[in-house]
Write a structure and sequence with these properties.
alpha/beta; six-stranded mixed beta sheet; 13 helices; 12 strands; about 45% helix
């Protein structure tokens, strides 16, 4: 295996000149630079990335901590961050916490020990122990949600607006018995969507009495089980707003198993606009989050924070969009 000394000898320059060319730490004439790069190619020299990162105090690596990378919503955000990182010359390490604060804390410790340049975090919340860890010099950006215990850059969508848009759509179609399938009460985005749902229902006097929130866990199974329970009631709902697409898909399965039709018997609206939502039967009306933009913006804020620690804290909030598909229709269209 070739060493930096071998490269220097082949190029006829000093070891320090080779180092300056490879690390771009000092001006080197174009003629010497090309001699060094040619020697590197000829010898197949691989610089020691760890040693270089220790010298430059940069690893060109970031960490991504997500609660559930099997959820297509988080997978799409992770892909966006990875694509943007690669274009900027950074590698990304993905960690999945399964929504467990203890596991989140462990991964934060691991990433700090690996001396990543920054961390993009979708926090599950917890005791705040992880926040104390993150108050060191490592750059941190939160995505999808903020944490009141951790004052750092964050990228979010307007979940209240999204919940209102979903519910307003159903109200405009004539529906009134519209239960809301919420995510965990400890998760900030779910709270915002539920607030938007309540706001819309309260704006319609004859719908206000039908406000009903059932707590799920953002997985399809919980949407399925909660909907089975709703279908046993009299009267049944005429529409369902689920606070993410996976619960909406679970709800649709429960409805169809009962021999009911979507949307003729019950309309369904989800939240996230995961890719799968446009391919199920019927395609799902949902609230689109700009997932790719969220990931790219999070990476941009992180790199800016890495390069300038004293920047003011940024909290961009992106807007949602209602995507109308075949899972919703007017209450009296086919009755």
């Amino acid at each position: 295996m070739s060493t930096i000394l071998d490269v220097a000898r082949r190029a006829g320059v000093s070891v320090s000149t080779v180092s300056h060319v490879l690390n771009d730490t000092r001006y080197v004439s174009e003629e010497l630079r090309q001699r060094v790069l040619s020697a590197v190619d000829e010898l197949g020299y691989q610089p020691n990335a760890l040693a270089r990162s220790l010298r430059m105090k940069r690893s060109h690596t970031i960490g991504m901590i997500l609660p559930d990378n099997t959820n297509p919503y988080f997978a799409e955000i992770a892909r966006s961050i990875e694509d943007a990182s690669h274009r900027q010359g950074y590698s990304a390490i993905l960690c999945n916490t399964d929504g467990d604060p203890a596991k989140e804390l462990t991964y934060i410790q691991v990433l700090l020990e690996k001396q990543v340049d920054g961390i993009i975090l979708v926090s599950v919340g917890g005791t705040g122990a992880q926040n104390a860890l993150l108050q060191n010099s490592t750059a941190v950006v939160m995505v999808d949600r903020a944490d009141p215990l951790l004052y750092c850059d964050s990228v979010q969508v307007d979940n209240v607006q999204g919940g209102w848009l979903a519910t307003r759509h159903l109200l405009n179609l004539g529906h009134r018995r519209i239960p809301c399938l919420a995510g965990p009460s400890t998760v900030v985005p779910s709270d915002g969507r539920v607030l938007g749902y309540r706001n819309a229902m309260c704006e319609t006097p004859d719908a206000q009495a039908h406000i009903r929130v059932l707590e799920g866990d953002f997985h399809a199974d919980s949407g399925y089980e909660l909907t089975r329970m709703l279908l046993d009631e009299t009267p049944m709902p005429t529409a369902i707003f689920a606070c993410n697409d996976l619960m909406a898909i679970g709800a649709m399965r429960a409805i169809q198993e009962r021999g009911l039709r979507i949307p003729q018997d019950i309309s369904v609206v989800g939240f996230d606009d995961i890719t799968l939502s446009r391919y199920i039967t019927p395609p799902l009306t949902t609230i689109a989050q700009p997932k790719y933009k969220m990931g790219q913006l999070a990476l941009q804020l992180l790199l800016e924070r890495i390069n300038e620690k004293k920047l003011p804290t940024r909290f961009p909030v992106l807007e949602c969009e209602l995507i109308v598909r075949a899972s919703t229709q007017s209450l009296h269209s086919d009755h």
